[in-house]
Amino acid sequence: MPLLDYSFLSKVLPKAKIKKSFKKVKQSYLIRIRIATSLFFFGMGFCFATWASRIPDLKLSLNLSESDLGSILFALPAGQLIAMPLSGIVVAKYGSRKIAILGLFVYAFFLTLLGLPTESWQLALGLFLFGFFGNFCNIAVNSQGVFTQQLFDKPITGSFHGSWSLAGFSGALLALLMLFLKLTPFQHFLIVLLIITILIATNYSFLVKVKPQKPVEKEKTSFFKIQDKNLIWFGLICFFCMASEGIMFDWSGVYFKEIVKAPGALAILGYTSFMITMAIGRFLSDFLVRKFGSRKVILTSGFVISIGLYCAVLFPYLITCTLAFMMVGFGVSNVIPIVFNAAGNSKKVSTSIALTIVSSISFMGFLIGPPIIGYIAELTSLKYSFAFIGVFGLLISGLTYQLKLFKEL
Asked: What's the CA gap between 75 and 73, in Å, rounded?
């Protein structure tokens, strides 16, 4: 794992003390570093939430069926998947700090292009590019989260992912405002680009710098040669979690509009309720891990995901579905922070490569989930699609129980 370059702390420490423990650093400066990292997670989540909040409008404006939308949504994780082998190598070579800064801006820029399509193929192309460049941002920002955690003597990783989820809630609220003002998706996305630009400009100097790492023998920063086999199981757990997340991001608005029959702007209520409990759960994640342990938290989370999805299927009404989506949000909230932190601290593989491996497997959930939902919905009903994904929560709990991957954390 790369060593932290403490030279960036020279603003608050004499040169002779730079190599001393982080405990000697002014607490206020450490907090500022943590805030900067959190805001980059926030910016990444804000961009994604903005896109997800306008899916129903784009579906309507392009006159897409469920299967059409499912096929088009396939483009976003496809772009992420193709970028996977490159992103870890690029982040390892040029540093997570530089790629996080550039990646977040490019991610927001390609978001604006998603508001321009007049044909379905244009939206698919835009989503592919959005996913491709977004993956570089994802690996770099998550690497920053791992390095920032190393500056603290208590768990804080959950709060970073909580910031991502809080951004989802904020993005949903902004979307409600944009709908009220009757702004087009492009106008909405352009405003978000401005917000992200300001966020980067005011926080980039506080990101953690890392000393260059010499290539590890046998690893050779290769995506394909996996030295730590536990990373495969971590990836599978995240795969089932992200598939569950994916249907909430991409289909919750459609589910509330077509199955729950939510009137007007209330179609976004399911997505909003999901994001609220997801954010709360992630801010509670560090506390829950300290109290109950990683393994018990993951086990419980899997069951909560399944219960929530099946409640939404069995009781497709406004109040019950809102509560069910809240359960799903709380269930998925803890899985990614715990697993990504475990993978990022692998002793056999560098942080960026480890996160790339886990992300590559897990993002297949996003890759497979959306089209499966669309195709099953086209053949049967959207409710049956949600019932199918409900099995994934049980698989999360089953893998965690059987493999005992988190007993050492």
From this structure: 5
Straight-line distance from the first to the last Cα atom of the chain, in angstroms, rounded to the nearest whole number: 17
pLDDT above 90 coverage of the chain, percent = 26
How far apart (Å, rounded) are the C-alpha atoms in residues 163 and 147? 17
**CA 214, 219, 221, 224: dihedral to nearest 10 degrees?**
180
pLDDT at 407: 53
- Rounded to two decimals, the pTM is 0.73
Which residue is associated with the tokens 């994780």? 77
123 token code pair: 């939206």
The DSSP output letter for 236 is H
370 pLDDT band (50/70/90 cuts)?
Answer: low
The pLDDT of residue 408 is 45
Tokens linked to 87: 């992103």
Angstrom distance (rounded) from CA 150 to CA 157: 10
4 φ/ψ angles, rounded to the nearest 5 degrees = -70, 140
C-alpha–C-alpha distance, residues 9 and 22, integer Å: 9
Neighbours of 335 (CB within 10 A): 29
Residue from 163, 206, 141 nearest 340 by CA: 141
Please report the pLDDT score of residue 15 as a whole number.
41
